[in-house]
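Q: Given only this backbone (322 positions), what sequence would you predict?
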C-alpha cells in the first residue's frame, strides 16, 4: 500500500529515476531504493517515490529487462555477426577503439557502437565547417569520430536507462534537436546535468562515516569524477577522450589536474589553448599515462612541474599538424 502522497502507479519519470539508481547501485535492496529515492529525485518528486511493495514488483520487472540487454560489453569486430552495425561504419569504429586504447580509455560498448553507426550519417554534416577548431584535413576524421562517439554515449545512456525502466515509447527529441542543429554546447549541458545529478546525490546523503566511506567512494564519488572528466575534456577539445581506464586514485588525480588547469592556473590554461587541437589531445594522452603510473602523487609542485614538462614537450614535438 502506498504512503499518503505517493503515486499509485510508477510514471515514466519515476521509472527513469529508479533505473538510474539501478545503474549505479545494482546490488541495493528494495529497502535501500525506497529510503534513497529522494537522493536521486528532482525537488518536485522528493517524497513521492513508490512504496516498498510497488518498488519490489517494479524492480523484479526491471531485472528481467536488464537480463535481456546484454550489450554493455566492449565492442570489437568480433561482434559484427551479432549486432546491426552499418558496414561503412566498421573502419571508423575499429580506428576509434584503437584511439581509445592509446588514450588509456575504456572502449565503446556494443550499445554505444550501435549508436555511433546509427549517427554516422552526420559525419558529412560535421565535416562541412570545422574551421573554428583549426583542424587540418587529416585530423578531421579523428575529430569527427570522437564527436560522434560522445553523442553516441549520450544516446546509449538514455536508451540504457529507458530499457531498464521498461519505457515503451522513449523520447529522444531533445537529443535529436540538438544534434540536428549541431549544438556542441548541448554536449556540455547533458554532461553537466549528469554531473550535478551525481553531486546532488552525494550532498543529499547524511549517513557517510568511516565504515561506509569505501562504498561511498565507489558508488558516488567515482561516477561523478568520471562525468566531471568528460565535461572538462569537452571544454578543452569539444569532445571527450572517453572514460579513463585507470584506478580511482588516478581518476581523482587526473580530474584534479584538469580542474587546476581550467579554473585555477591561467598560465597553463593560456598555454594549452594556444597549441593546436591535435597537440591538446597528445597533452591529455600523455597526462593520462602519467597519472595512471603515478596515482599517489599529492605534491602540487610535483604536479605543476609535470604539467609544465608535458606542455613543453608537446609544443616542441614536430611541426604543427593542425
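A: Predicted residues:
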Amino acid at each position: 500500500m502506498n504512503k499518503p502522497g505517493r503515486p499509485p502507479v510508477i510514471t515514466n519519470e519515476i521509472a527513469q529515476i529508479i533505473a538510474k539508481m539501478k545503474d549505479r547501485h545494482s546490488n541495493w535492496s528494495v529497502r535501500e531504493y525506497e529510503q534513497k529515492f529522494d537522493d536521486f529525485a528532482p525537488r518536485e518528486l522528493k517524497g513521492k517515490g513508490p512504496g516498498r511493495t510497488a518498488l519490489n514488483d517494479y524492480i523484479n520487472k526491471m531485472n528481467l529487462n536488464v537480463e535481456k540487454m546484454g550489450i554493455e560489453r566492449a565492442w570489437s569486430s568480433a561482434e559484427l555477426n551479432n549486432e546491426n552495425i552499418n558496414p561503412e561504419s566498421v573502419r571508423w569504429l575499429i580506428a576509434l577503439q584503437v584511439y581509445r586504447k592509446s588514450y588509456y580509455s575504456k572502449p565503446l560498448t556494443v550499445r554505444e557502437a550501435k549508436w555511433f553507426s546509427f549517427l554516422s550519417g552526420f559525419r558529412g554534416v560535421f565535416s562541412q565547417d570545422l574551421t573554428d577548431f583549426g583542424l587540418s584535413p587529416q585530423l578531421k576524421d579523428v575529430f569527427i569520430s570522437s564527436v560522434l562517439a560522445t553523442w553516441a554515449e549520450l544516446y546509449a545512456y538514455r536508451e540504457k536507462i529507458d530499457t531498464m525502466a521498461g519505457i515503451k515509447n522513449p523520447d529522444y527529441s531533445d537529443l535529436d534537436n540538438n544534434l540536428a542543429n549541431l549544438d556542441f554546447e548541448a554536449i556540455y549541458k547533458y554532461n553537466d546535468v549528469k554531473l550535478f545529478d551525481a553531486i546532488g546525490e552525494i550532498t543529499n546523503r547524511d549517513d557517510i562515516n568511516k565504515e561506509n566511506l569505501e562504498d561511498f567512494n565507489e558508488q558516488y564519488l567515482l561516477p561523478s569524477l568520471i562525468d566531471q572528466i568528460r565535461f572538462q575534456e569537452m571544454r578543452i577539445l569539444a569532445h571527450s577522450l572517453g572514460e579513463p581506464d585507470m584506478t580511482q586514485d588516478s581518476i581523482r588525480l587526473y580530474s584534479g589536474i584538469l580542474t587546476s588547469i581550467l579554473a585555477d592556473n591561467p598560465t597553463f590554461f593560456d598555454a594549452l589553448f594556444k597549441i593546436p587541437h591535435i597537440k591538446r589531445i597528445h597533452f591529455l594522452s600523455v597526462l593520462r599515462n602519467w597519472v595512471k603510473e603515478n596515482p599517489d602523487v599529492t605534491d602540487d609542485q610535483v604536479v605543476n612541474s609535470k604539467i609544465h614538462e608535458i606542455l613543453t614537450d608537446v609544443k616542441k614535438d614536430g611541426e604543427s599538424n593542425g
